[in-house]
Design a protein that fits this description.
Strand content: 15-25%
CATH class of the largest domain: Alpha Beta
Shape: elongated
Distance between the termini: 65 Å
Number of helices: 11
Helix content: 25-40%
Oligomer: single chain
Radius of gyration: 21 Å
CATH superfamily of the largest domain: Methylesterase CheB, C-terminal domain
Strand order of the largest sheet: 8-9-7-6-12-13-14
Structural class: alpha/beta
């Protein structure tokens, strides 16, 4: 086996996170290995020059995190992502690729396919400094309190605000962050074609990604998707995503409802934030509003969910086992505001199952 094909399984301490590097560049593999091995709590478990060798490694070894390049000979990273997720048995994938520039289509595609996060890989000779700091931050973000090398365990249903067997909403508002794009795709694919309630989405992404994100959502959901604009009318059968630097708010009109954009500070510190979206949707639609909180860091959405419940809305959150980060949904669940805690595909099926059965 040549140096370019080098694959190994390193000895890793029991309390260290195991990392597999998948990159066709020998220089990149060497630099990434040094960064990981010098980061407390992490150790390079193996390296692979292509997807086939990565799959062979994962067939016999378990890891916690996979660093994946997208531009590789043979099967590229995007095409290999679903197989690597399955073979990884709970491993989280961080895409590290020069293809992940701001606004790049590959970034949103990778996140929709199940990658947890992305990071732009610098040119050779520029791996030091800021890149190392950000890589370590991303690695820490993808680490939680699960045992190293183990897939997430199923969790029991926490206390909830009530029961939820499904609903027939007039509006669905969805908040998400890290890991949320993949969860969104699982949820939206389960909605039947006849489901026509408008859908609002606040996903934490830079503004430069929003046009492609909207196009990706339109393809996944099978319905038009728009980047929200001020005073845009909310129409049935359409999806609206928050722009990168403004919150989505809903306002009642004489003949329906419209969006208003705002940039005020909110408790979570996020912009866009799910809090104004949840609270305003419930203020307009009351008991006919459904708010969904998907995977994400922090507590964004919790205060909005509290206000929404006071106005009669139903709150449903993603379960811990299927979440990349159970911060946002976990905060809502811990507050006792959720009527159900479910995987995203089950949320989608239950939302779509009852519309039209009034």
């Amino acid at each position: 086996m040549s140096a370019a094909d080098f694959l190994h399984a390193a000895t890793v301490e029991a309390d260290e996170r195991r990392v597999l590097i998948v990159d066709d560049s020998a220089v990149a593999r060497a630099v990434l290995t040094r960064v990981i091995d010098s980061s407390p709590g992490f150790r390079t478990a193996g390296v692979a020059a292509d997807a086939d060798r990565a799959l062979a490694f994962l067939a016999v070894e378990r890891v916690d995190i996979i660093l994946l390049d997208l531009e590789m000979p043979g099967v590229d990273g995007l095409a290999a992502l679903p197989d690597l997720l399955a073979a990884g048995r709970g491993a989280r994938i961080l895409v590290v690729s020069s293809s992940c520039e701001d606004g790049a289509a590959a970034t949103v595609q990778a996140l929709a396919l199940g990658a947890c996060d992305t990071l732009v890989k610098p040119g050779i000779g520029n791996f030091a400094g800021r890149f190392v700091t950000v890589l370590r931050e991303r690695l820490a973000r993808l680490s939680d309190d699960r045992s190293p090398g183990q897939a997430p365990a199923s969790v029991p249903l926490m206390r909830t605000a009530g029961s939820w067997e499904g609903s027939d909403p007039d509006i669905v508002a969805i908040g998400a962050s890290t890991g949320g794009i993949h969860a969104l795709s699982l949820l939206l694919r389960e909605l039947p074609p006849h489901f026509d309630a408008p859908i609002l989405i606040t996903q934490h992404l830079p503004g430069s990604f929003m046009p492609y994100f909207a196009a990706q959502i339109a393809m996944i959901a099978g319905r038009p998707c728009h980047v929200g604009d001020d005073r845009m009318r909310i129409r049935r059968g359409n999806v609206y995503v928050a722009p990168g630097a403004a919150h989505l708010r809903c306002v009642a009109m004489a003949d329906g409802a419209a969006l208003r954009l705002s940039d005020e500070r909110v408790a979570s510190g996020c912009r866009p934030s799910a809090d104004p979206m949840f609270a305003s949707a419930a203020a307009v639609w009351n008991t006919r509003a459904l708010c969904v909180v998907l995977s994400g860091m922090g507590r964004d959405g919790c205060e909005g969910a509290r206000q929404a419940v006071a106005d009669g809305a139903t709150i449903v959150v993603q379960d811990e086992a299927s979440s990349v980060v159970w911060g946002m949904p976990g905060a809502v669940a811990a507050a006792g505001l959720a009527s159900a805690i479910l995987p995203p595909d089950q949320i989608g099926r239950r939302i779509g199952a009852r519309q039209g059965r009034r």
